[in-house]
Structures are given as C-alpha cells and as structure tokens.
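Hi there,

I know you've been waiting on this one. I reran it after we fixed the sequence typo, so this is the corrected version. Both the input and the resulting structure follow.
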Amino acid sequence: MVVGSIEQKRKEIKKISNRKKHKIRDESCKSRENKLIVSIIRGDKKTIEDGRIINDAINRGIMSFTPELIFEQLVERYSIAKNIYGPSIIRILTNYDEEYVRRNINIPEFKVKIKENIESNIERLKDRGLIEKDGKITKEGIKLASLILYMEELNNLVPRGILGEKLHKRMFVYGDKKNTKEYKRGDLYKDIDIRKSIRLAIRRNHHEIKETDLRAFEKEGRGQIYVIYGLDASGSMKGKKIETCKKAGIALAYKAIEKKDKVGLIVFGSEIKQTVEPTGDFRKIIYEIAKVRASKKTNIALTIKKAIELFPNKEVTKHLILLTDALPTEGKEPDKETLEASSIAKSKGITISVVGIKLDSKGENLAKKIVSLGDGRLYIVKDIKNIDKIILEDYYSLQNKL
C-alpha cells in the first residue's frame, strides 16, 4: 500500500511538472508573439520585411532558403530565378532593386557583394528563429507571416470602409427588427414602429393614435453562422493571386469571429491539404491560412465532401465558400462528382457559394450549377483586388437571411 501510494504521488508530481512546463512554454510563445506584434505596430522595417519575405516564399511554393542555390540561380539563370523568387524576395535578400540586380548581375564585384548580402540576410532570418539551420521555414516564421498578412489586410480594409455595417443589414441587440405585429401589453415601448402605427391610424381615419393602431417590431433571434472558407491552392494560384485570397480569408475570419460566428478552413488542390473545423480561434485560422502554398490540380468534389464532415451536426447556419480559378480538373468524372457532392451537402443543410477567378465558360457553367444546387451565390471575379469585399459580401448575405 505504501509503495503504491508513493508511486501515485510520483505520477501526480510528474503531471504537475508537465503542466508547468507547458504553461511556461505557452507563455513564452505568447511573449514572443506579442513582441512581434509590437514590432509590426511600431513599423520596425526589418521585422516587416522578414515577415514579407516568408509570406512571398510560401505563396511561391518555396519552403526553404539555401543561399548557395539562390545565388547560383541568380547568376546563371536570372530570368528563371526571377520567376521563381519574384522581385520582392530578390530585393530583400540582395539589398538591391530587382532591375538593378538584372543589369549588374554579370559584374564580378557585384556578384561578390550580392552573395555576401544573401548569406547575411538568410543568417539574420536564422538568428531570429524564422528559418531552421537547413533553411526551412519555422513555426515562428509562419506566425510572423500570418501577423503581417493580418496587419496588411486590416490596413487595406479600414480605409475602404468594408469592415463597417454598410454592406449589410444592421443587427440589433435584441434581434433583427424585421416584420411588425400588433402591439400587446408587455412589448417594449422602444419596439413600437411609430411610422407604421401613424399610417395605420390615418388609414382608419382616427384623429389620434389609439392603442389598437400601435404596431411593434417582431423580433427574430440571431442564429449562429458556421462558415468554411474553401481555398483553391492549385498551381495556377501561385504568387500574388493566392496572397490576395489568403487576405480575403483573414478578413472573413476577422469579421465573422468578431460577430461570435465560427470560421473553418479547407485548403484544396488535387487533395485536401489543410483543414480547420469551424472555430472562434482567430489566431489559429490566420496561422493556418499563412501556411497555404499552391501546387498541383483542383478537386472540388473532395472539398465539398470534406466540408460535410467538418460542419457540426446541430442547428446552425452552415455555409461553404469555394474560391477557385478552375473548376475542376481531378477525378474520373469531375463535373458529375462535384454536382453529386453539392446535392448531398444541400440535403445536410449546407449552402454553397462560388467565387470564381476568371473562370472559362465551362467552369462558369459548372459554377452556376453548383450554386443552384447549393442555394448560394456565384461571383465572377475579374479583378482580384476586390476578392476580400466579395467574400465579406457573401458572409453579410448570410446574416441578412437570419
């Protein structure tokens, strides 16, 4: 009995010790994250550039930095290197504008200088814990990238007024003042619809408003919305396109979670790459969005089926937003499989909207069938700068239905 008691005490002490270690680790992570936020808010140029270079790398499908390889590609195959890395990464790593690098890349002294700069800048990223010794991007690097995405999108949305209430019907504290009913004792005075009450009294030829003329707003409680952002990460989405779509996802998460709704994520290509069940954890969502990188083909049917799994089995508004630039290219009969999945989703109470980026006629026709089956909306995007506005508009349309 004594031995057993001692062993039990040891286990309890070990559990307490582990809990303390996890707490210290969590507090340490939060402290580092808070320092990054402060640096960004203060406009620390190096921190912001570090975050941008990580973002650009992920968006271009680059998940590691090797100074020797980068230098070699710039020197030997500059045009190809420019397509791989883009002007932003080249500028930040070399400390020179991309056009200046192109013009001077064959000068021996300049080669020595940019090699030193590339090595120095990558070493700085390692020292800050943003990339590993082998050049792979760390979790800390992705966190910084997510914060930069968030700050840039917020700075973009606020001046445009998109985060305000103008795009949708205002929701009131006690519910939505939608229809009116006959006023009854016990209804709140502030809920009396004065305009309709006066009109009714006039119609009845009353010289004063009588109690029987009074109309009151009929309240509807605001149900909760669960929305999943389905983000196409196929190869054609690389670069600026996927970055803009990531920021739109962050705008959706910011606004929906602020409204106490929940947001999930499905990142898809030829297969499902990442999933997040609908959550109110904003940091988790933006971290997962920041990780997204483009590759391979598109499988819409698989995405819809996965969304059905992720939505909870309870009475809430369930909505899937599919953002894609191609419909679809993976599967034996992709069109048929996609429409079958859309029909199953609708039977489960899930609505589907499609945001199509420069879809061809075949893709647009299929998108129309998806939203028709899914009782959602179709948005054909010509200018990717407006994607965040469109995504928020679709979310606001859900609020208006409640």
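Quick highlight: The beta strands are 176-182, 215-220, 225-232, 262-268, 272-279, 317-324, 350-357, 378-381.

Best,
R. S.
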